[in-house]
Automatic annotation (TrEMBL):
Gene3D superfamilies cross-referenced by the UniProt entry: Kelch-type beta propeller (2.120.10.80)
One Pfam assignment: Kelch_1
SUPFAM superfamilies, sorted: Kelch motif (SSF117281)
Keyword annotations from UniProtKB, A to Z: Kelch repeat
InterPro entries, alphabetized: Kelch-BTB_domain-containing (IPR052392), Kelch-typ_b-propeller (IPR015915), Kelch_1 (IPR006652)
Listed transmembrane segments: none
Record-given protein name: Uncharacterized protein
Length: 135
């Protein structure tokens, strides 16, 4: 990791060796405060920002990592972006959907109420589509 705390590297812990191992790089610039979840053996990395201070570049983009992809040279694919840019949010998988809940938008500290999201979005991997969710 670099000194900024922002990276695009993904590592995993191999319990049998009690070591962290390199897995891959997110196909985007170095970022932080994104949501991540595993759904049906695929890793989703969504949203986030390009620096820790939230001064700029909060984004809605998403990527899916498929470890058994037929195209073994690039197991990453881009998914539909969320309707709202968000970082520091909760991302969970329930049944056949992903839920992005809460988070903040682009802002400088201190955060004001307009920067805090109380709503969420639902993602359908099958349709590759986000639907806004009421707060």
């Amino acid at each position: 990791f670099n000194n900024s705390g922002v990276t695009n590297e993904i590592t995993y812990y191999l319990q049998s060796e009690k070591k962290w191992k390199y897995l891959s790089r997110i196909p985007h610039v170095e970022q932080c405060n994104f949501g991540s979840v595993v759904h049906k053996n695929q890793l989703y990395v969504i949203g986030g920002c390009f620096n820790q201070s939230l001064e700029e570049d909060v984004h809605p983009f998403g990527f899916r990592y498929n470890p058994v992809c037929n195209n073994s040279t690039n197991p990453w694919s881009t998914i539909a972006p969320m309707h709202r840019e968000r970082c520091r949010f909760t991302l969970i998988a329930v049944d056949n959907y992903l839920y992005a809940i809460g988070g903040v938008s682009e802002s400088e500290y201190p955060l004001i109420d307009d920067d805090l999201y109380t709503s969420g979005e639902i993602y359908s991997p099958e349709a590759d589509e986000w639907t806004p969710m009421a707060s």
